[in-house]
Amino acid sequence: MEEQDRLTRFRTTLMTAAIDRPHLFPFQPLSTSPWIAMSLMQKAIRRGDSHTALSAAASLLQMAPQRLWRRIGCIAFEDIGVADLECVGLVTAALTSKAMRKQLGGEWAVASLVVEKMANANKNRSADDLLMTVEQMPHLATERSLFATMPEQRLREIILGCPDLHKRALALWYLMGTTRWSSNVLAERKGNPNLAFATLAEHGVSPTVMAITEMGFRKTGEMLAPFMALLTLENGIRGKAVRNDTLPTLGLAGNIPSYALDTYTREGKQAFTRFLNTKAETASWINENRPKGARLRLLGELVFRVEGGQLIQRSAGPAADALRKQYEVGCLGTFPEEATTLLTLMRKDIGQLNACRAQVMWGAKKRLKQQVPSRGFWKWGSAVLQGEIFT
């Protein structure tokens, strides 16, 4: 009940914003797959491109509304975070229930409102940088095994008293549990979320942030919300100034920005595989230095660092910048000098990757158009919804 009371202010603000907005963005879904729509929406929000983000959100609402709301929640904690806690609170309030959204004008009225607010908000990716470094930093290998077997009281002591942020975050993750909210790296542990939340509150996280965190964690099932709460206690995470990251030249794959095609989409995997067969310097280095089964993953990591994870209106202080560098260079699975070289090569080769993306999308469209006459109209519509064709 107390958590609900803490969120009432955000629900009221959300209601006022829904009533006072000058116009409702038209519902204009794209003909694409849910996976590309999710990728496109999140990356467009990072880039401050509200129009593209809204079109992608409309696509998700049409095809997979549950995916839309879960992804919206994840984006709030992953990409906005401590830079704009008010915005995160509004998003969390929007996640409360479908009945509440109906009272505010319906699914699209609320979704379009919060997506636009996230695109225009200041942004900070420190929660995700912390999550990735906790999982991947080599110097934490011992702790990742040791903490898994510690009693809850010892994990609490680490969260409350350890000066090392990464160790506190790792202890929090194990105390929260890794059974339902799993990790590919951490050992399985059931956890005690209630105790973990109580520990964060004892550590000094404000009651309002705690309410946002608990609701966000329940709705998304991700550790990003608890990590954001932990970061509110750190100096140097949120910056006083706002800056824009350097974005690669925008390419198009069909009528969709090329950056939407990443390794989590079928078409993105096809394009990345095609790129690895080119003579691009990045592809040559990966092919010469990595076994076949590891090449696609490394390429995906590089592309995310130079393209997918870039932000417009980044609000990050020195501690956030340090976390970002630890992730980008220290978690690539190479020596720091090699990581820096690879990132430079990937920035230079992004245009060649975009050409591969465009080729994949053009080929998919051409194949489906050739097949349509024999399929009939209903199969054409099915192909569009399944992301087999893009118009």
In terms of per-residue confidence, which ranges show pLDDT below 50 for 5 or more consecutive residues?
374-391
* Helical/strand content category: mainly alpha
Strand runs, count: 2
What value does the Rg take, in angstroms?
22 Å
Q: What is the ordering of alpha helices and beta strands? A: HHHHHHHHHHHHHHEEHHHHHH
Helicity level: 55-70%
Strand content: under 5%
How far from one another are the termini?
48 Å
Q: Going across the biggest sheet, name each strand in turn.
A: 1-2
Number of helical stretches of at least 4 residues: 20
* Tally of individual domains: 3
Mean pLDDT: 91
Summarize, please:
It contains 20 helices and 2 strands. It has helices at 2-20, 34-46, 50-63, 65-80, 85-94, 98-103, 107-120, 126-136, 141-146, 152-161, 165-176, 193-203, 207-220, 224-231, 266-276, 281-289, 292-308, 318-330, 336-375, 377-385; strands at residues 252-253, 256-257. Strand 1 and strand 2 form a beta hairpin.
Helices and strands, with pairings:
Elements: H1 2-20, H2 34-46, H3 50-63, H4 65-80, H5 85-94, H6 98-103, H7 107-120, H8 126-136, H9 141-146, H10 152-161, H11 165-176, H12 193-203, H13 207-220, H14 224-231, E1 252-253, E2 256-257, H15 266-276, H16 281-289, H17 292-308, H18 318-330, H19 336-375, H20 377-385
Antiparallel strand pairs: 1-2
Helix pairs in contact: 1-5, 1-13, 2-3, 2-4, 3-4, 3-7, 4-5, 4-7, 5-7, 5-13, 8-11, 8-14, 8-18, 10-11, 13-14, 15-17, 15-19, 16-17, 17-19, 19-20
